[in-house]
Design brief:
With 368 residues, the chain is of the alpha+beta class. It has ten helices and 20 strands. The protein has two domains: 207 residues, FAD/NAD(P)-binding domain, CATH 3.50.50.60; 138 residues, D-Amino Acid Oxidase, Chain A, domain 2. Strands 6-7-5-15-16-17-14-18 form an eight-stranded mixed beta sheet, with helices on both faces. A six-stranded mixed beta sheet has the order 9-2-1-13-20-19. A three-stranded antiparallel beta sheet has the order 3-8-4. The longest helix has 25 residues. It starts with a strand and ends with a helix.
Length: 368
């Protein structure tokens, strides 16, 4: 007899979880409040990496999921006949301030010791790989990370959901969940804004930045915050850019059709606090690192609201004292999505507890 599972949310995490559960034979219903990929996942820089991820166990999870992305691209190509969303062009990182350069070198040495492929390039060698880059003469070295890349996340979500449907899953869009059904200390389903009830053996909360609202419906309070970030998309420019670039003024990557997507956390902080930092100012600042951005124009901006548990680490697993509710929420949801899908399937369908997640369980907040 198959297990009935409701997955709430169809972003990167929810789509991956739904795909793996359906593939394993579960009877899966996906409920999405809006459109798949229409929330945080569709407004993500979508950088596949483990570059700044600490502690070590969190680094290892991200590194493992980078490999999962590569195998998932091949697998979904076979299942759905679709491909082309996974781009592993590598990353380039550099700093200009001497102390920042020292910190970057320390980070590179730590990453290499942890098994992350690292190459130290001269500025000239970096600009040979990417001829449109401008690396200041004060830079001692550029850190090249050849296994990093990015995904076209909404395209991937479409393939995941198509794969899930091929394995029997049902997708309901424009269906916000407004209630959690309980029988004593057990969650037995959800209720939607339209009054429909979906009963299940397990409800998996993959609601991203509204995950705390979902938990609150079940009577659980979790310390949680939301952090908005702005992405800026240029009109098409003539460029051969392949890498993700983390430069002193900001980060940028190709976005298809000749467009460049860029952002910077320092610009974000100013913008979030209501200061006058228009998108054009960010574009001008970053253009000193990339020739084609000179004279380019802003075509669009998007705001992504990132789900951040209080300690900034993932929250994955069952909620203690409330059977039938499984939570998957994390920053780095794009990188970690494929791994979360496999973890959730193994834990929910096989009862295999993943030891790597010992410190990332929801119970860490409930016991404090």
């Amino acid at each position: 007899m198959s297990t009935d599972i409701v997955v709430v949310g169809a972003g990167s995490v929810g789509a991956n979880v739904a795909y793996r559960l359906a593939q394993r034979g579960a009877n899966v219903t996906v409920l999405e409040a809006g459109a798949p990929g229409g929330g945080t996942s569709g407004a993500s820089f979508a950088w596949l990496n483990s570059f700044k991820k600490t502690p070590r166990v969190y680094f290892d999870l991200n590194l493992a999921s980078m490999a999962e992305h590569a195998s998932l691209a091949e697998e979904l190509g076979t299942v759905t006949g679709r491909s082309g969303w996974h781009h592993r062009g590598g990353g380039m990182h550099w700093e200009e301030d001497p102390k920042a350069q020292d910190s970057l070198r320390d980070a590179a040495e730590r990453l290499e010791a942890w098994g992350y492929p690292i190459e130290l390039l001269s500025p000239a060698a970096a600009m040979e790989l990417e001829p449109d880059l401008i690396v200041d003469s004060s830079v001692r070295e550029v850190v090249h990370t050849p296994t990093e890349g990015y995904v076209e996340m909404v395209v991937l979500i479409g393939a995941l959901l198509e794969g899930a449907r091929k394995y029997g899953a049902t997708l309901r869009t424009a269906t916000p969940v407004t209630g959690v059904l309980r029988e004593g200390d057990r969650v037995v389903g959800v209720e939607t804004a339209g009054g429909e009830q979906f009963r299940a053996d397990v409800v998996v909360a993959c609601a991203g930045p509204t995950a705390d609202d979902m938990l609150r419906l079940a009577g659980i309070e979790m310390p949680f915050t939301r952090e908005p970030g702005r992405l800026i998309y240029t009109a098409p420019v003539a460029s051969t850019l392949r890498h993700i670039v983390y430069a002193p003024e900001g980060h940028f990557r190709p976005d298809g059709g000749g467009r460049i997507v860029l952002s910077d956390e320092h610009h974000d902080h100013e913008w979030q606090e209501g200061m006058n930092w228009p998108a054009e100012r960010s574009l001008e600042a970053i253009s000193r690192h990339f020739r084609p951005l000179t004279g380019a124009r802003v075509e669009a901006t998007r705001i992504g609201v990132r789900p951040i548990p209080k300690d900034r680490l993932p929250m994955v697993g069952p909620v203690p004292g409330l059977d039938g509710l499984y939570v998957v929420v994390s920053h780095s949801g794009v990188t970690l999505g494929p791994l979360w899908g496999k973890v959730a399937a193994a834990e929910l369908l096989d009862g295999q507890t993943d030891a790597r997640l010992e410190t990332f369980r929801p119970g860490r907040f409930l016991s404090s």
